[in-house]
Amino acid sequence: MEDDQILSVGIDLGTSTTQLILSRLTVKNFASAFSVPRINISKKEIIFQSDIIFTPLSSPTKIDAEAIKKFVTEQYKKANIDKQAIQMGAVIITGETARKENSSSVTEALSGYAGDFVVATAGPDLESIIAGKGAGTNIVAKRQRRSVVNIDVGGGTSNLGLFNDDGEVIDTACFDVGGRLIRISKENHQITYISPKVEQLIKSLKIDIRVGMRVTAEQLQPVVDVLTQILENSIGLGNRSPYFDLFITNHALHPEKKIDGVTFSGGVADCLNEELPRDEFRFGDIGLLLGQAVRHSAIFKEKTVYPSVETIRATVVGAGSHTTDVTGSTIAYTADILPIRNLPILKIAKSDESLAADALATSISEKINWYKVQNELSNVALALVGRRSPSFADIQRYAAGIVKGAQILLVKHEPLIVMVHEDMAKALGQSLFALLPSKYPFVCIDSVKVENGDYIDLGAPIANGEVLPVIVKTLVFG
Amino acid sequence: MNEPELKSMIQDILAEITDEQGKTVSSNSTDTNDVSDEVLSDISEIDLKKQFLVPNPHDKAGYLKIKSFTPARLGMWRTGTRYKTASILRFRADHAAAQDAVFSDVDPELPKKMGFLETQTTCESKDEYLTRPDRGRKFDDEMIKKIKDSVTSHPKIQMVVGDGLSSAAIEANIPDIIPAIQQGLKVYGLSFETKDVIFVKYARVGAEDHIGEITDADVVCMLVGERPGLVTAKSMSAYIAYKPTIGMAESKRTVVSNIHDGGLPAVEAGAYIAEMLDKMLRLKKSGIELKAAENAEK
């Protein structure tokens, strides 16, 4: 095949800022002429970076959807891109913005508005993974052969994504620590906003900081010190702060996992200065104070801090460039059912995979029933590990088990979606074809790693039908 | 000491010695009765990518990671003329497996069990096959007649299985790849029967050109054992050509190589070959011309 390109968009609606990037992914066949094609994304180029705007709110609890639509339209015009040309991408809503009342309706609407196949995503775990990939932490970890954690310190939250020495994400965490938890007027240094958790902290520290009062950096230092200590604690350093649990968003990292190095991203990553600048409230928040405190924290003394490739743009770059994967060449599918969005993954237990066809079928049909919501069955993607070098009999057994086990989906005429980790999808797909009713819609792809709890999107085929773009959305982690 | 005394002394000494020996012998024989039925472990079972013989490595995990990307014999600790015994034995075992793959014949039961038509090129022995490549590409008149009489003439797809340089490759891959290709072809409304598959002994790739002329097939697909190396002796390739003729350019062949359990699995290769056969029949081309036509299609 010839190289092909995918135009992908990433939109990040963060606690404080909203931004958009467009990137071009090049899909290339890495195999020699005498082998079966091995298709991968060879290049990820950012071709357009939007302005960074403050996330528009119509009220303290509501996102201004119209203003965001206008922003997207303007940026597409600026980039000279027709929205029809956008093939993949992700809208991610993060930090405190994800907690606004209309957050899910806004992202849903926006994902349709931003392009035909742009997915809406949310959740602190996914955000941590996306930010880490955008910051290039997975690459650093692989190159250095060390486990490296990315700490994305944004306006409202700090997202941690831990990558092992293969560059695979192994743990995530999120804390309500950020640069804009306290907002201060640039002109007169009056406090304009304090986040609810920081209010609690101030009360418990018995210090006098309120909305409306004028403050100095020294007065805010005790708060900044606690926030910094929580960040130290988050990667297992320093004495445990009594406020640690208070500031956990969803969960902390698993303490037994080794951490060798650290990267920083997010807006505060640009504020990691040795000295406080003269105008410390330049950004109207405590970002510069927090950045300087982190710079002098145990993190810099006890861990290797590696430079990241993106800071404030890490999440949006991650959403635009690192959410899409491709699977190709040894796959089988019927084209008219694509794209498919938001399918939950049903992973067959490894031990069940070696069962005889009938037993495998029973196990599959039992599990499909778990996905019944109010007695309504919706489609799922069946995921298997597969065999490294399967015999033809193995393939037949898998196919028979799957077709029989998925009977409840087949009677509803739901397309059959099968994903295998090992390289066997083409043979398995052809076996499914032989067993399924004539012209029954199905997709069978390999080399995609998924787990229970993940959701998957499959794009329309590219590269002359040889490649399918895939987005795996990990919503729950660990 | 007189002679008789000396004699008796020597006799005593000898008796003592033989006595002791007798004991040793007898204790030895109890040992031999105690033979363990343990079998020496098969050194070729060791995964070379995980074998690491450096005694005090600075970074074992790092070295093993490097090794995971290559079948090369890295981290064997000694090189040159001073390999460790384990390394030299393994090297010789792999070399022997490669030689066996070349010099042994395909299990005669295999083509029978699969129901293939059995044929042989003009070579009479392995030695002749190895020294006279030209004779491995042709059939004599009697064999031509056998082929003509036995298989369907002018088929869309003519399948051929040739021993080539590795009989082990054929034995390892054929039972899985043939049904995989057949099943794959169903997707495209194509088929072949196993009784029409021609098994060729002493086969060179060029034999498919002669078969193409004899059967007048649209596409000939030949599965053939590849020259074995030290990594695997079981690698097979498919050489596929649209209307091949004797003396045609090699560039007209499409090749799917590296079919073995550590490379492209046989069933997956079969699925891919089925799609390739359909493509050739549609575009009426193979090899470089097929690539060009495919690119023009886009």
Automatic annotation (TrEMBL), chain B:
**GO molecular-function annotation terms?**
cobalamin binding; ethanolamine ammonia-lyase activity
Tell whether Heme is among the UniProt keywords.
no
Name one process (GO BP) from the record.
amino acid metabolic process
Give its E.C. classification number: 4.3.1.7
Binding positions (adenosylcob(III)alamin) = 205, 226
Q: Could you tell me the keywords of this UniProt record?
A: Bacterial microcompartment, Cobalamin, Cobalt, Lyase
The record's InterPro entries line, in alphabetical order, gives: EutC, EutC_C, EutC_N
Give compartment(s). Answer: Bacterial microcompartment
Cofactor dependency: adenosylcob(III)alamin
Superkingdom: Bacteria
CC cofactor note: Binds between the large and small subunits.
Q: Which GO terms describe its cellular component?
A: ethanolamine ammonia-lyase complex; ethanolamine degradation polyhedral organelle
> Quick one: which pathway?
Amine and polyamine degradation; ethanolamine degradation
The reaction(s) annotated as catalysed by this protein in its Swiss-Prot or TrEMBL entry are: ethanolamine = acetaldehyde + NH4(+)
Q: Name one Pfam family in it.
A: EutC
- Report the sequence similarity comment from the record: Belongs to the EutC family.
Its function, per the record, reads: Catalyzes the deamination of various vicinal amino-alcohols to oxo compounds. Allows this organism to utilize ethanolamine as the sole source of nitrogen and carbon in the presence of external vitamin B12.
How is the subunit organization of this protein annotated in UniProt?
The basic unit is a heterodimer which dimerizes to form tetramers. The heterotetramers trimerize; 6 large subunits form a core ring with 6 small subunits projecting outwards.
Q: What is this protein called?
A: Ethanolamine ammonia-lyase small subunit
Species, as recorded: Furfurilactobacillus rossiae DSM 15814
Q: What is the lineage of its organism?
A: Bacteria, Bacillati, Bacillota, Bacilli, Lactobacillales
State the gene name recorded for this protein.
Answer: eutC
